Amino acid sequence: MSSKEAILAAAKQNKPQATPLPDLLQFPDEPNLVERYEKGLSGNGGSLGEGDSIEDINKYIQENFSQDQLIASLVEGVAGNVDVNKISDPHDLEHVEVAILKGELGVSENGALWMPEKNVVHRVLPFIAQHLIIVLEKSKLLTNMHQAYEKVQVNDDGYGVFIAGPSKTADIEQSLVIGAHGPRSLKVFLI
């Protein structure tokens, strides 16, 4: 018997007994999801938008951005001046100032948003725009990541990402920099 065979035989002989996996932990639902979500979102550097309708979102865009800036909207009823669906090369999105996208799920414990590929068209869009506005239905707020992972179906879209605030880094002289590698701001509107 070779030394390799002896080692494998000894390992097989001394294998511990299998034990059953523990039950999945259950967490209680958060009673005030909107308040908790706002706390998580603001802790990540994002902010919750005022208002709860498409008209409020359009008003916010008109008040905070000029019409000569490139605005890409994938939310019905919110006007943009860039048709993302007609762009084949993602490099053509490099000058997009504002991207308005629809979120699929919101997680109250940490302010994260689940963004499947169908909601962003180009994977780069939520990261290349200078300002990100995400519209999320209040009914899609969840208490925690455990609930989110139960609902996320990666196989349906092939790609998805959790976004939790604007781009941040603190690796340069341990100073926090917002917008170094992506959006400088994130605003979420709950409708």
From TrEMBL:
Question: For the LUD domain, which residue ranges apply?
Answer: 92-191
Matching entries from InterPro entries are given as:
FTHF_cligase-like_sf (IPR024185), LUD_dom (IPR003741), NagB/RpiA_transferase-like (IPR037171)
> What's the protein called, per UniProt?
Lactate utilization protein C
The organism's superkingdom is given as: Bacteria
Residue ranges of region Disordered?
Answer: 1-24
Write down the species.
Answer: Echinicola jeungdonensis
